[in-house]
Amino acid sequence: EEEEEEEEGSESSSPPVSYQMKPPPEGCCTTDGFCQAGKDLRLISISNEHIEVPSGFLLVGIKSPNLPDHLLVCAVDKRFLPDDNGRNALLGFSGNCVGCGKKGFCYFTEFSNHINLKLTTQPKKQKHLKYYLVRNAQGALTKGSVICWKG
Length: 151
Description:
alpha+beta, GREB1, GREB1_N, GREB1 protein, single chain
């Protein structure tokens, strides 16, 4: 019993560690470009698929450090995105996975974990939500205008 108490005590007195994502639950997909349910999120792969976007949400492209040539697709509540002048975005995050359909991510850290966005620092959504996604004349989802983040 004394050994257990010592171990517990050493855990609580250890210095805080730098940001690390929690490992995904056992059995989850951990492949770059795929969500933990194993669904492909790369724009190039799902550009011609019909994606359900709830009212008030927009499709945006996320840049992944591990996949520099690809954008990952996600649905974000437009209230948390800036206007054309880079202003008036609410603080926080609300997003959905377009791969498996999981809804209600309230924290970007939780969402980035779900989409296997492997980051070495505390994620800041402004840095990774890069482009609005739009449908072209042929109906394919393509990279639109840059999301204008200020400050």
